[in-house]
Write a structure and sequence with these properties.
The chain has 273 residues and is an alpha+beta fold. It folds into two domains: 85 residues, LysM domain (Membrane-bound Lytic Murein Transglycosylase D, Chain A), CATH 3.10.350; 107 residues, Glucose Permease (Domain IIA), CATH 2.70.70.10. 19% of the residues lie in helices and 24% in strands. The strands form three sheets. Strands 5, 6, 7, 8, 9, 10, 11, 12, 13 and 14 form a ten-stranded antiparallel β-sheet that branches. It has a two-stranded antiparallel ribbon with strand order 1-2. Strands 3-4 form a two-stranded antiparallel ribbon. A hairpin with a 7-residue loop joins strand 8 and strand 9.
């Protein structure tokens, strides 16, 4: 009897194994691969609209969603000097922005757009203007300081080691992270104009964005102190900030280069060390 029971158990075990194998083959033959979608790209996760909050500028909104500020302005009918107000709704659902016919500006105001109250300036991107001793000066954006599209003569914004490399649009890191000490000077990587200075973009801490021409912008994040303001013209190698840890867990500089609104690998543009 024990021997019969043993043979019976062995036979049952073999049948069980065969059923498992057949089930696996059937499931493999009937399985349809799931479609692969890249939801990490700007165009996938971008909402249709953005409501302007205090501290927002047209440049910071375009930067956040991976768009060119010129396209965003044209699509929303916002004209130079690109004034936006809190609670204003900015449309982000542009598909072929270059072909969009400019609309009428959504801002109506009786004020001189180049002279704004302090409460208004917190939510504007009044780039073509610099103020000094209560006087208003226009900045010539077409001068030789900022060429139309030529690649700038890049230089390293700090001497620190590379802590984290560029991961592209599909990755989390849209630039490179460079190590350093608290208070160490952060330098402008190329000549240009400061178009954003603030801490309104989550995850960037105290951030500077510099426009070098109609094609290239650069960003400097997690600073301890900003030494320049919006509208300032800066030269390559000029001290623009003190390195810090704002918006992150360690002292470092997060550096980005964007070409036509799209993040690119800074190491392909910076000179070899």
């Amino acid at each position: 009897m024990p021997e019969v029971a043993f043979h019976y158990s062995l036979k049952t075990f073999r049948v069980f194994i065969i059923l498992i194998i057949l089930g696996g083959l059937f499931s493999c033959s009937s399985h349809q691969p799931a479609p692969v979608t890249d939801k990490s790209r700007f165009s996938q996760w971008r909402p249709k609209t953005h409501t302007v909050a205090p501290g927002d500028t047209l440049f910071s909104i375009a930067w956040r969603y991976g768009l060119k500020y010129e396209d965003l302005a044209r699509y929303n009918g916002i004209v130079s000097p690109y004034i936006i107000r809190p609670s204003q709704v900015i449309r982000l659902d542009l598909q072929t922005p270059a072909s969009v016919t400019p609309g009428k500006t959504s801002i109506t105001t009786s004020k001189n757009p180049l002279i704004l109250d302090k409460k208004d300036r917190v939510s504007t991107n009044n780039l073509p203007v610099q103020r000094k001793e209560n006087k208003t000066y226009k900045v010539d954006l077409t001068n030789k300081t900022i060429a139309k599209s030529d690649a700038p003569q890049w230089r390293w914004p700090t001497r620190g080691i590379i802590l984290s490399s560029f991961q592209g649009n599909d990755g989390f890191n849209k630039g490179i992270d460079l190590g350093g000490k608290l208070g160490e000077p952060v330098l402008a990587a190329a000549t240009g104009q400061v178009v954003y200075a603030g801490s309104g973009l989550r995850g960037y801490g105290k951030l500077l964005i510099i426009k070098h021409n109609e094609t290239f912008l650069s960003a400097y994040a997690h600073n301890e102190r900003l030494r320049v303001k919006e509208g300032d013209l800066v030269k390559a190698g000029q001290v623009i900030a003190d390195m810090g840890s704002s918006g992150t867990d360690r002292v470092k500089l997060h550096f980005e280069i964007r070409r036509d609104g799209t993040p690119v690998d800074p190491l392909k543009y910076l000179p070899r060390r």
